[in-house]
Amino acid sequence: MTGKLGLGRSSPQIPSIPSLRGISGPIDSQIKALETAWDMDHRRQGQILLTTVHWHLLMVSIQYKIMNTKKLVFPAMIPLFTIMCVFPNLDTSSFAHTEPAIEDLSGRYVPTAETIELIREEGGYKIHGDISLTLTADRRFVLSNLPDWWHTDSNIPGGGTDSGVGQWSTVEHQERYNVALDFDSREDFSSDPVSSGLSTSIPIVGDAPPYNLWFYIGDPDSSRIMVFERVEEDQN
């Protein structure tokens, strides 16, 4: 069952980056143009390619200016540092652009080794028990022991975990497919223990199986992601 998904807290929107094509002239002008392009592109969430060669030349120019003038206004560098922070996760071509078959999605997913390290080192979580998401062929799911910083206020690690069951489906948003999770309740949520349910979605990564599933930690613009990989197919 495929539906249309509106914008939500878990929508897989990846920040765009400004194109440097056509930007030339003194380094101060380049920085100003880059700031303007960043602001315009971020608002419309465009997917624009940043060419490695031009980026390298701009960095060399900035370094040259620093060496020769011994000063560079720090606020002008903020857009550049922001771009460098989010750039590793801007490959939106890796998202699923065709709807996966149920048998290719159903199964048991666990965090990658890199995600386990992120949970331990940055989140400070003590991992006890199984962290997993299981999608069954009959469209039910079981989430076990997901670190609660994906759903806490300001996404600050709370030290607890969220677990729950519910119904899953595939939804299409901006020509990409997500897994929608409709929780029956949040009674086993450390971050928000209430009897009412929760509807959210997580992006499907890959255009062919095996797929990965991403849980964003806060705003997708932060580029903090818990990556889950399928380790078992559904046996039913």
Characterize the structure shown:
By secondary structure, this protein is an alpha+beta fold. It folds into two domains: 27-90, no CATH class; 95-233, Lipocalin. Helix content is 25%, strand content 27%. It has an eight-stranded antiparallel barrel with strand order 2-3-4-5-6-7-8-9. A hairpin with an 8-residue loop joins strand 8 (212-216) and strand 9. It is globular, with a radius of gyration of 21 Å. Residues 4-21, 37-57 and 69-90 have low confidence and may be disordered.
Question: Which descriptors apply to this entry?
Answer:
2 domains, 236 residues, eight-stranded antiparallel barrel, Lipocalin, alpha+beta, globular
What topology emerges from the helices and strands here?
Layout lengths: L1 E3 L22 H18 L7 H18 L8 H9 L15 H4 L1 E5 L1 H9 L10 E4 L4 E8 L13 E13 L2 E8 L14 E8 L6 E5 L8 E9 L3
Parallel strand pairs: 1-5
Antiparallel strand pairs: 2-3, 2-9, 3-4, 4-5, 5-6, 6-7, 7-8, 8-9
